[in-house]
Amino acid sequence: MQVFDMIINGQHVKAEATFDVINPASGQAFARVQAGNPAHVDQAVAAARAAFSAWSRTPDKRRQDLLHALGIAIEEDMANLMELVTKESGKPLGGLNGIGAGMEVGGAIAWTHVTADLSLPVEGNR
Question: How far apart are CA 74 and CA 119, in angstroms?
Answer without folding.
Answer: 22
